[in-house]
Design a protein that fits this description.
109 residues, Alpha-Beta Plaits, 6 strands, globular, YCII
């Protein structure tokens, strides 16, 4: 099963320290070596919003006022089941600290 694990922007951003870099590097290396991690990356805050209503399509450049709700990073993982995906998200949150992540199953992959 594939899951997209997304991280939202923290309410109060802090600069990462050496411990965070070390722990995250080890976590990513472990998931990559096991074949669990398929892709990962950070997302730029100034996205593009495309909205359709009937025949009208509106394109708006960001950043947007609701940036605190924005997804700032992602990981695409392949796990045995939902419980394993949740455990990976728990491990990630323990490394990075307070904040919010969203995990969604990816269909058709």
């Amino acid at each position: 099963m594939r899951y997209l694990m997304m991280t939202k922007a923290p309410a109060e951003p802090t600069a990462p320290d050496e411990k965070l870099f070390t722990e995250m590097a080890a976590f990513i290396e472990e998931l990559t070596a096991s074949g669990t991690l398929l892709a990962t990356g950070g997302l730029a805050p100034n996205g593009i919003r495309v909205v359709s209503s009937g025949d009208e399509i509106t394109v708006t450049d960001g950043p947007f006022t609701e940036a605190k709700e924005a997804v700032v990073g992602f990981a695409l993982v392949e796990t045995r089941d939902r419980d394993e995906a949740i455990e990976l998200a728990r491990r990630f949150r323990r490394i990075v600290g307070d904040g919010e992540s969203v995990v969604q199953e990816v269909f058709g992959g």
